[in-house]
Design goal:
Layout (H helix, E strand, L loop, with lengths): L7 E10 L2 E11 L3 E6 L6 H8 L7 E6 L2 E3 L4 H6 L2 E4 L11 H5 L14 H14 L15 H14 L4 E5 L7 H16 L3 E5 L3 H7 L2 E6 L2 E4 L8 H9 L17 E10 L6 E6 L3 E5 L6 H8 L5 E8 L2 E3 L4 H6 L2 E4 L3 H4 L7 H5 L8 E2 L2 E2 L1 H14 L16 H14 L4 E5 L7 H16 L3 E5 L3 H7 L2 E6 L2 E7 L5 H9 L12
Parallel strand pairs: 3-8, 3-9, 6-7, 7-8, 13-20, 13-21, 16-19, 19-20
Antiparallel strand pairs: 1-2, 1-4, 4-5, 9-10, 11-12, 11-14, 14-15, 17-18, 21-22
Helix pairs in contact: 4-5, 13-14
């Protein structure tokens, strides 16, 4: 039987940047009707491969074959003309335009008079969104959507192209469990239609569920080609990092009986309706729920970002009122936001400036910042958190996602916060960086810090939490010990619309 012809193929493709060989004679075959996982730690060369296939950059040597014919992809338009649609990890939406405009940007349906047919734009956008089972109006301004909903609009843009090849770079990083399952079903449908799909993700449990074959990169080279590695999380991890890393979720039990924070009946105009819970010293309290359930909104309410319209917060038994974020910071709270790139980092600063941003008082005299003292004060944190030493010399936009995330966390360690709210802290970072974050959580709780942990990765949430508060429609409807829940229990609890149960039943 004659083997199937690859739709796309890299043959000994290399690409170098100053001082870095990003892709070193990479070979990969992408078959029609197959979901191909491209895996590896941050900096392994995945992004370079994606940019090469997308026409963002050209290889230094080697060949790209399309249906066995050599091609040159000079720019992104050439890639689109060849049937390649790419959903990049970094959003490319225009926030001031509508959802429909973003989906068809650059390819707007037009009437016979050459003007944009807005009715057709919205009708076609509605069709694509319905196929994805996404309930978003095409007339909604995209900038008003949540991060997860914006991610779905990015995916809709690729679907609308009806491409023969779709590249997905961390497509589920901002999605909840239900949205992930809908996306996976859509990809299975595309696979049946013969579409080739290149799937890049750090969430290896979902890779195990969805991909047909994997290629693993390390230091720019293919270390496991398609068919050489069993699609099994532990085997994939070993191939990615070059060693057996042992326990994926190194959870420590450090919770005490001491209550450090109490939230009673919190409500905000942004959707929090009845958030009631307690947080103990040394505890990791997970917030579980589907995308849009109100988890992030509860975090914003606690941190003073969104004004409370009802309810009360107590710290160490004393009522507090946070009218601004600075009030929460002074009271010992910290927030690692869901979107570190927009809300968490100053990209034109080095690590030191980012780490000290929330607590400059101790480094200043007469309003003048002592830069030497800042460098000395942050050096130890950079070392202890195993942040790249490049962070001391380069601005953070040159660092990997994992290093960027650790810098955001380092900011709150520097300010010596007692309560840390971590909103999707491992989103978009590789397995090695994730484990570093988990170990940091253990270190913090061991020191008596308390953590509120928000994650759309249910396995991670179950493994790293002591208790889980389930959020529905802005309310906490139940709180249970994480050890008493399974993955399926959490999915059902998050989607269940049964009446709320009092916090004290589960505290």
């Amino acid at each position: 039987m004659t083997p199937a012809t690859p739709l796309w193929e890299f043959v000994n493709v290399s690409k170098a940047y100053p001082g870095v060989l990003a892709n070193d004679k990479v070979n990969i075959r992408l078959m029609p009707g197959s979901i191909h996982g491209l895996l590896g730690e941050n900096g392994c060369g995945k992004s370079t491969m994606i940019k090469t296939l997308s026409g963002v950059q050209q290889p230094d040597s080697g060949q790209i074959l399309h249906n066995n014919n050599p091609v040159t992809i000079n720019d992104p338009q050439a890639a689109r003309d060849l049937g390649i649609a790419t959903v990049f990890q970094e959003f490319s939406i225009v926030p001031t335009l509508s959802v429909g405009e973003n989906i068809f940007l650059g390819n707007m349906p037009r009437s016979r008079f050459g003007v944009i047919d807005w009715g057709q734009v919205n009708a076609d956008a509605s069709r694509v969104l319905a196929e994805m089972e996404v309930n978003i109006s095409p007339e909604t301004i995209t900038g008003t959507l949540s991060v997860g909903e914006q991610q779905l609009v990015e995916i809709a843009k690729a679907i609308a192209m009806d491409a023969s090849m779709v590249i997905l770079d961390e497509p589920t990083a901002a999605l909840g469990e239900d949205e992930i399952e809908r996306l996976h079903q859509l990809l299975r449908n595309m696979r049946r239609r013969g579409t080739a799909i290149l799937y890049v993700s750090h969430r290896l449990d979902e890779v195990e569920r969805i991909v047909d074959e994997v290629t693993i990169l390390r230091n720019g080279r293919v270390v496991r080609a398609s068919g050489e590695t069993e699609i099994n999380v532990s085997k994939i991890v070993s191939a990615m990092v070059g060693e057996d890393i042992g326990e994926h979720y190194p959870k420590e039990q450090n919770a005490t009986a001491d209550v450090v924070l109490e939230a009673q009946g919190l409500a905000t105009r942004s959707g929090v309706k009845d958030a009631t819970f307690v947080l103990h010293r040394g505890e990791v309290l997970g917030l579980g729920g589907v995308l849009g359930s109100g988890r992030t909104e509860i975090a914003r309410a606690l941190f003073g970002t969104d004004e409370l319209t009802a309810g009360q917060i107590r710290l160490e038994g004393k009522p507090v009122s946070f009218r601004r974020e600075i009030d929460a910071i002074r009271a010992g709270l910290a927030l690692v936001p869901e979107n570190r790139k927009f809300d968490g980092l100053f990209f034109n600063f080095r690590a030191s400036g980012n780490i000290t941003a929330a607590s400059l008082g101790g480094l200043s005299r007469l309003g003048i910042l002592n830069l030497w003292a800042e460098e000395q004060a942050t050096h130890e944190l950079i070392r202890d958190l195993e942040i790249s030493t490049q962070a001391e010399e380069k601005t953070v936009n040159f660092l990997s996602g994992g290093n960027q995330q650790k810098i955001v966390i380092a900011r709150w360690l520097f300010s010596d916060s007692d309560i840390l709210i971590l909103d999707e802290p491992t989103q978009g970072i590789d397995i090695g960086a994730k484990i570093a974050v988990y170990k940091l959580i253990n270190k913090l709780t061991r020191a008596g810090k308390a953590i509120i942990f928000i994650s759309s990765d249910h396995d991670e949430l179950l493994a790293m939490s002591d208790r889980i508060a389930v959020v529905q429609h802005g309310a906490i409807v139940r709180t249970v010990n994480a050890s008493d829940l399974t993955h399926d229990d959490l999915v059902r609890a998050s989607a269940d619309n049964s009446p709320s149960k009092p916090e004290e039943e589960f505290a």
